[in-house]
Amino acid sequence: MRYRRHVFVCTNARPVGGKPSCGARGGVEIAAALQRAVATAPDLVGAVAVTPCGCLGPCFDGPTLVTYPDGQWLAGVGEADVPAIAAWLAGGPLPDRLRYDWDDDDEPSG
Amino acid sequence: MRYRRHVFVCTNARPVGGKPSCGARGGVEIAAALQRAVATAPDLVGAVAVTPCGCLGPCFDGPTLVTYPDGQWLAGVGEADVPAIAAWLAGGPLPDRLRYDWDDDDEPSG
């Protein structure tokens, strides 16, 4: 396992007027802020990777991210949540408001 | 764990003349072909997700992908390898030529 934790942040952008998209709701800024937070935290740098990615599926609940190998999904993320996410990546608790549990009825979409 | 396997394929594009990039060497086409292969395989659809992503780090060895939760890295992937990768995702062996093991000297880059 190259990284202790690999975070993928949806930065997918959709045209205005259709389905919401993480990229249009702050995903790009969240990914950059999280990369910066990791790069400046001695206990995270080199151990945690943050990679922007395409559509993760729960578009209406975004901005969305997923971390592996644990497979934890986060949704409704804002840039203001980045310090709490970094603290969680360093071993702290995950705030309940950010936790996303897939409903079996949810249909992943591309 | 929402998916049995989540595949992230680097589609990062860099300007011509600099460091190579997966997006300029077929990453986009590989991601699309793998999405199609998964969508049309009854034992993979719904269980395996394929998401394009930004830079994964080993730019000189790309096109690159990583799968989770197992944390297996693949490099030097071509579109012609997609059937073999789909067969691996369905439980077959991973061809040695595609296996990528990080050297500790490798420096991840964004």
Q: Which descriptors would you attach to this protein?
A:
homodimer, 110 residues, 5 strands, 19% strand
Question: What's the topology here?
Answer:
Two copies of one chain form a homodimer.
Chain A: E1 5-10, H1 27-39, E2 48-53, E3 65-68, E4 72-74, H2 82-89, E5 99-100
Parallel strand pairs in A: 1-2
Antiparallel strand pairs in A: 1-3, 3-4, 4-5
Structural notes for this entry:
Two copies of one chain form a homodimer. By secondary structure, chain A is of the alpha+beta class. Chain A is 19% helix and 19% strand. Chain A has helices at 27-39, 82-89, and strands spanning 5-10, 48-53, 65-68, 72-74, 99-100. In chain A, strands 2-1-3-4-5 form a five-stranded mixed sheet, with helices on one face. In chain A, a hairpin with a 3-residue loop joins strand 3 and strand 4. In chain A, helix 1 packs across helix 2 (82-89). The termini of chain A are far apart. The model of chain A has no long low-confidence stretch (mean pLDDT 94).
User: Radius of gyration of chain A in whole Å, from Cα?
Assistant: 13 Å
Terminus-to-terminus distance of chain A: 27 Å
Largest interface pair: A-B, 26 and 25 residues
| Global shape of chain A | globular
Q: State the assembly state of the protein chains.
A: homodimer
Main beta sheet strand tally, sense and closure of chain A: 5 strands, mixed
Helix content percent band of chain A? 10-25%
Biggest sheet strand order of chain A reads 2-1-3-4-5
| Low-pLDDT segments, ≥5 res of chain A | none
- String of helices and strands of chain A: EHEEEHE
According to DSSP, the number of beta strands of chain A is: 5
What structural class is derived from the secondary structure elements of chain A? Answer: alpha+beta
β-sheet strand percentage of chain A: 15-25%
Put simply, the count of helices of chain A is 2
- Whole-number mean pLDDT of chain A: 94
